[in-house]
Structures are given as structure tokens and as C-alpha cells.
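$ fold --in a.seq
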Amino acid sequence: MTDALVLFSGGQDSTTCLAFALENFARVETIGFDYGQRHRVELDQRTKILAKIGAIKPGWAARLGKDHGVELGVLGQISATAMTHDVAIAMGADGLPNTFVPGRNLLFLTFAAAIAYRRGLRRIVGGMCETDYSGYPDCRDNTIKAMQLALNLGMDKDFVLDTPLMWLDKAETWKLAEQLGGAALIDLIVEETHTCYLGERGQRQAWGYGCGECPACRLRAAGWRKYRGEPVQA
């Protein structure tokens, strides 16, 4: 077992990735980014999840190490997206939703690698997924492989970018969480993680808190229903 740094936003996917890392690596540190996101409530949820996840399985608390917060407000300043500005979520002329923040994952991985370099961490774990996603090009497997090569060349290291959700749909992500941490992890994800693009936490759904209408909420809800064996709405 080696050491890992997890890109941890406070959402469903990154919390599942954190559980994956705690189950598979000897020491696990986390990193989160404040880039001026509309749903920055996720940053508050990070702290709550980190305070609770170690108690889910024996050994997890001892493996959970330092949390790193990185200020990337400039990314929000140069982005004209529905994730960083108060505009309606819509499809762009390029076929991508306007929730896509160009360069976001590329910057996240670069800063994560810089911290991993300093902290002596070899594995970098992210929740990028090419199965249930919005077409974001920086979530594709080829992008992650290219970034791994660039980071290793540019830092003269042997980093491994782990993406345990890459080929899972949302129902399978819920199932993986159950396999990793049982009902306790599922309950933590439902109650504490944040996915809603609009930052809504006032309304409790069966699958957690959110507006229920934005693309992130709809994807999470459909995955929950499929995971539970319930009819999935068209």
C-alpha cells in the first residue's frame, strides 16, 4: 500500500473516491479548490464529511491525513460559465453545457501534483468519469492519461492518476460506495455530500439535498433510482 492525494470537492463522486482511497492506500490526504463556484456550499460540506468518514470502517481514521485548501478564484474570474456566474444553465453553440469550466480539471490536477510532489504522495485520485457525464472533455480517459504523462515529464516523477469511477454510471457509483462502506457510507453521502449546481440544500430528496432540476441533480436522482431498483424517469 502506498500514499494518495484525493481531489475532494464534497460531492458524491469525490466522497466515493475518498472512501476508495481510504480502503486501498496507507495514508490519504485530500485537496479542495475554491474557484468561485456558485455551489461553494460544497466547501462547507467537505469539512463535515471529513469529520465523519473516518468512523465508517476500522482503520480509516488512522489513514486520513492532512486536508489542503487551494484558492483558485482567478479561474472563476476568467470563466463565463453557469458554474461561476448567475446565469441559466443551457447548452452552448459548441454542444457543451455552459456548466463546463474550461481548464478546471487540468488546473486541479496540476495543483494536486504540485502538492503531491511536496508531500511525497504518488497516487492522485479523482472522480472523473466518461460514462455518466455532461460531455466535459477534461473528464475523458484520454485527457487524464495525457495529464499523467505531462505531469510525470514536467515534474520528473512517477505519479499515477487513479480514476475509479471512469467507467461507472451513477447507479454503479452508488453501488461502489455501498461495497466500500456499507449503509453508513450511503447515509453519509445522502445526508452530507453536495452535487446541486445551484447550491440548493433546502430540500431533502431521497438521494440527498438539491434543487432536483439541474443536470447534476437529475443525474444523481436517476442513478439513485436505478441503484435502488426503482423505475427511472425518462
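$ fold --in b.seq
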Amino acid sequence: MKGAFNSPDMEEITPEYVAQLGKEWFESMVDATPEEELFSLPKFEHRLVQEHRDGHQEGERDGEAKILMRQLQRRFGIVPDWVREKVAKAELSFLENWSLRIFDAQSLDDIFFDKV
């Protein structure tokens, strides 16, 4: 293994250093274990699926928020802070609905009438 284990400075062990050691240990364990054994562990498989799902949904939500903000700026000019905060905190389903409303809306209130 490389990385934190090869750190020349062992004087100060920080939480970040310990976390990095844990990640490297986990990665080496995964690399050394045959796939059929890894996937026979229900918690391991569940964790991989959950991490993939969570990461995908968060990325999709962030992308939708970014597109909506561009649309709002293009349509209405400067976007007020209350809209930025609302978009930043919104769930994916709200972002999708708001991005469709932009075509018919005459104002920001027309888009965000369902207060979150």
C-alpha cells in the first residue's frame, strides 16, 4: 500500500491521517479479497449499492439545480438570495417542477409558488 502508510512524518497523527489509513486499509482489503467472497457479504454489497445510489442522486440534484439557476438568470436577470437558498435546499422533484414552470412564468413567484 502507498499513501498514508508511507508518510515520513509520524510526529502528529491527526483524525484526517487516521481516516486516510482506514480508507487505504479498506481498499487493500477489497483488492486482496476475491469478488465472490466480497459479494457474499450482505452488508458489503448493500453498502456499495447504497453509496452508488446516493452519489448518483446527489449528482443529479446538483446538476438540476445548476441548470435551473442558469435558466432563472437568463430569464429574469439577477436572481435574489431567497431563490438561491430555495434552490440550494430543494429536493430533486421540486427542482424538476420549477425548471418546467420557467417557460410559462411571468415572475419568480410564478415558479416558486409552492413554498418549500
